[in-house]
Amino acid sequence: MLPDVEKLAIARPNLKIVIEHISTKEACELVKKYPNIHCTVTPQHLIFDDADVRTGHSGMNMPIVMRPEVNTSEHRSAIVDLVINSDTETRKKIMF
Asked: pTM value?
């Protein structure tokens, strides 16, 4: 999906594109790269990674099920970095 989003961002620079529930490092990179790509971030993708879901170390006594699924710690770190360390213009494109 992301290659198609990138093609659309290039072809239609005045179109505001929103990637819902961002969950990968690659999606974070697109948000940083293109001024017309925005995103939403969910709390679970900032807090959990796949190890939490696999091992049950989430602090919950129930399975964690969400879509998109949480990813590796590398992807979670990229999302956290996007939210915390991006410049002001990029931060304006992030919604919760």
From this structure: 0.89
